[in-house]
Amino acid sequence: MARRSDHSREELHAMILSAAERLVASEGPRALTARKIAELIGYSPGTLYNLFANLDDLVLHLNAQTLESLDKKLQESPFAQDPVADLMALAEAYLAFQDAHPHLWNLLFEYRLSPEISIPDWYLKRIRTLFAHAERALAPLFWEDDLRHRSEAAQVLWASLHGISQLASAGKLELISSHSALNLARILITNFVRGIRVNEVSIQDPDEDSCTQLGNRKIHGV
After folding, report:
1. Backbone CA torsion sign across 212, 129, 50, 105
2. What is the pLDDT of residues 156-179, one digit of tens each?
3. Which of 169, 203, 209, 214 is the Cys-Cys partner for 152 at CB 3.0 to 4.6 Å?
4. Positive or negative, the Cα torsion across 10, 15, 17, 18?
5. For all residues of the chain together, what is the average pLDDT?
6. pTM score
7. CA–CA separation, 149 and 18 (whole Å)
């Protein structure tokens, strides 16, 4: 077993997350324990708790690492300032990433933190970074300063896409549709964008009348 002085805190931090990622990727989220991670890096389980407050803290950092990897994949998607084409490119990257990393994906969305754990701001920032890709693709449909409704549209669209991806991941999609996840994503995106254009409004706000809505938003391609 390695001595504490063999590696710096930064090196240990990276080693622990790397080992945890390999463990989850190969054996699934249920295999993630301090003891198994410690065995992989050649340290005692207590070493993990010198760098992470608890297993929840470690999982948050590991999930943040997964979100960062997803963000890099989304950044590679082509961008043509065509909402449908750009959103489809993002959806394809999203679904491909899920398919390539099923166990890490499950940890990301199925692991339940202890009730007393508050999600840190740095983690929420990682999530907002991902939504920014969808907001950028939706931008041609909104006034430049209409950040609120563009953000809401991105949230609704990604939540819908996530539902499709989760059904596909669980092997349940064929129970409700003959379409593949990618085809359903295409139908979703096409109709979502068409709905915005045809109605000349974005996400309806019950606190605003229709005249105010039309006066505050710019819709392209009607």
Report:
1. positive
2. 999 999 999 999 888 898 888 889
3. 203
4. positive
5. 87
6. 0.83
7. 38
pLDDT in tens, 112-169: 999 988 999 999 999 999 999 999 999 999 988 889 999 999 999 999 999 999 998 8
Radius of gyration of the chain (CA): 21
| CA pseudo-torsion sign 67, 111, 54, 34 | negative
Q: How many other C-beta atoms lie within 10 A of the C-beta of residue 117? A: 14
How distant, in Å, are the alpha carbons of 39, 49, 136, 161 from that of 122? Answer: 29, 20, 21, 24
DSSP string of 166-214, one letter each residue: HHHHTT-GGGT-SS-HHHHHHHHHHHHHHHHHHHT-SS--TTS-HHHHH
The per-residue pLDDT for 200 is 53
